[in-house]
User: Fold this.
Amino acid sequence: MSLDINTDMFTERSPAGHFLALRIGFAFPIFEQNALPKAWIEIYSSRGYVLADPVMNWLYQSTGTTRWSEIEIADPRGVLEQARAFDMNYGVAICCSDRGTSGQRSFGSFARSDREFLDVEIIELEEKLREMHESLVPPTNLTRAELEALGMVKNGLLMKEIADDLGVSEGAVKQRLKNAKSKLKAKTSTHAATMATSFGLI
Assistant:
């Protein structure tokens, strides 16, 4: 998804790398960033560590914050010990979610090589993650006509083709797309269509 998401703060606060997943629904997150060491990513993926990783287990089971060293979930495959070989000696896991049982969640795992994260740093990371999570709430006010027009943009149709297919004027199509862009806070119609697709609206 093409989103203007600035993750510089996470990079600055976690010099050994971070993993970020925003608004995880039933399948995939709306936005995902894996800025962990590439060599570690290859090992982690090839050995299928995600199911054995105590940090990931905590993130899917909990909300709030915890340092990696405070997680009391078993690590039978020694994932955290192996991570230290890639300078990920200390870390913090942070997860926030919507209210209610059906809400989406966002989480991040942040690493340092030199020391534990300070309380103030954890608070800053949590606030930033929450801010991102809430900024990506899918809009609920798009009309059927606006979504229909976005679907046609997604399929590569031109303005005239959309108007002909819908039996309306090009001006009407432009207005629908303008409204959709405004509601989605998108820069272009293509961007709006991409966002609507990622939100599962079309």
Observations:
- The chain is about 45% helix and 15% strand.
